[in-house]
């Protein structure tokens, strides 16, 4: 599951330029990302996604349908699990 | 009631401080040389090949960018220096094709970003990791703002400053202000910074030190 990832890119003078070879990238460094790091990043991304959903819904609370509010409650419940770092993949069905 | 001033001093010819009430005079050049010999401005020296960061970060955060908002964080340069590259750290990727543009602005006398010093060009921000542009920039002693603007909403490594000349937020008392942001429709950086709004937490844009000049 581990993967090789580009972690550092340096463009030449002028920055990104699609008319130049390799979009003007003059140096690129990669590193192997461990399974554990991939797992932590996935958790972080999903945690962040839920934050964005919840903030959007709270900002438009009066316009939400009851079904959407149910969804929000479910997200909040998941967020509470994450807060303690105990939500594992596969534990919840969705 | 008037105030009578006596013993007024002025700088005379040859750089001498003259004192009408004193028996002798002091050479200002000697005084400055003496000061240089006994004091140290820590930022007149800098390690080469690292990200120049004269103000200490008080706390670090991931900063989600708002599209079409030009962010500018204050730095100062204590002596003439040349920087080689400019860098940002993308902690969360923006949507496919999202770009960001990097640059440096001069500071006005009131410490707001003013005129454009350098537009480095743009980089991809639809992936994670560190990304930069290689291009030399020489800065002389003074305040500057390093800046970034995006056409999307990537998340960049950011910070709140522990100290800066912009002072603390009087409402929250949380960290010093780090810089400003202003509205700018994505594209080449404007010659003059847009109307600035002061801000606490800003994305970090690092200039890599190359030479002390």
Provide a descriptive summary of the structure in words.
The complex is a heterodimer of chains A (94) and B (213). Helices cover 46% and strands 19% of the residues of chain A. Chain A has 94 residues and is of the alpha+beta class. In chain B, the strands form 3 sheets. In chain B, strands 4, 5, 7, 10, 12, 15 and 16 form a 7-stranded antiparallel beta sheet that branches. A 6-stranded antiparallel beta sheet of chain B has the order 9-8-11-6-13-14, with no helix packed on it. The longest helix of chain B has 11 residues, at 28-38. Strand 1 of chain A pairs parallel with strand 10 of chain B.
Helix content of chain A: 40-55%
- Alpha plus pi helix count of chain B: 1
Q: Compute the number of strand runs of chain A.
A: 2
Radius of gyration of chain A, Cα only, in angstroms? Answer: 20 Å
Which helices and strands appear, and what pairs or packs with what?
The complex is a heterodimer of chains A (94) and B (213).
Chain A: E1 3-11, E2 25-33, H1 35-59, H2 66-83
Antiparallel strand pairs in A: 1-2
Helix pairs in contact in A: 1-2
Chain B: E1 9-11, E2 16-19, E3 26-27, H1 28-38, E4 51-52, E5 57-64, E6 69-77, E7 81-92, E8 99-107, E9 113-124, E10 129-139, E11 142-150, E12 155-161, E13 179-183, E14 197-199, E15 201-203, E16 206-212
Antiparallel strand pairs in B: 1-2, 2-3, 4-16, 5-12, 6-11, 6-13, 7-10, 7-12, 7-16, 8-9, 8-11, 12-15, 13-14
């Amino acid at each position: 599951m581990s993967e090789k990832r580009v972690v550092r890119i340096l463009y030449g003078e002028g920055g990104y330029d699609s008319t130049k070879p390799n979009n003007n990238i003059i140096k690129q460094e990669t590193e192997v990302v461990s399974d554990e790091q991939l797992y932590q990043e996935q958790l972080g991304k999903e945690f962040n996604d839920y934050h964005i959903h919840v903030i959007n819904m709270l900002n438009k609370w009066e316009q939400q349908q009851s079904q959407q509010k149910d969804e929000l409650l479910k997200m909040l419940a998941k967020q509470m699990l994450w807060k303690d770092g105990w939500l594992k993949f596969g534990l919840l069905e969705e | 009631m008037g105030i009578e001033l006596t013993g007024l001093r002025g700088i005379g010819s040859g750089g001498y401080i003259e004192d009408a009430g004193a028996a002798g005079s002091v050479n200002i050049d000697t005084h400055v040389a003496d000061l240089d010999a006994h004091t140290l401005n820590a930022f007149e020296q800098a390690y080469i090949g690292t990200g120049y960061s004269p103000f200490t970060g008080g706390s670090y955060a991931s900063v989600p960018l708002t599209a079409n908002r030009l962010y500018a964080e204050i730095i100062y340069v204590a002596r003439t220096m040349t920087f080689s590259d400019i860098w940002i750290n993308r902690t969360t990727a923006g949507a496919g094709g999202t770009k960001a543009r990097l640059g440096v602005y001069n500071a006005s006398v009131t410490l707001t970003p003013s005129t454009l010093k350098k537009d480095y060009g743009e980089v991809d921000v639809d992936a994670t990791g560190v990304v930069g542009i290689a291009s030399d920039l020489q800065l002389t002693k003074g305040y500057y703002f390093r800046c970034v603007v995006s056409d999307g909403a990537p998340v960049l490594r950011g910070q709140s400053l522990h100290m800066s000349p912009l002072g603390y937020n009087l409402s929250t008392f949380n960290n010093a202000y780090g810089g400003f942001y202003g509205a700018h429709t994505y594209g080449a950086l404007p010659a003059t910074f847009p109307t600035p709004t002061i801000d606490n937490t800003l994305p970090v844009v690092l200039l890599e030190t190359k030479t002390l000049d």
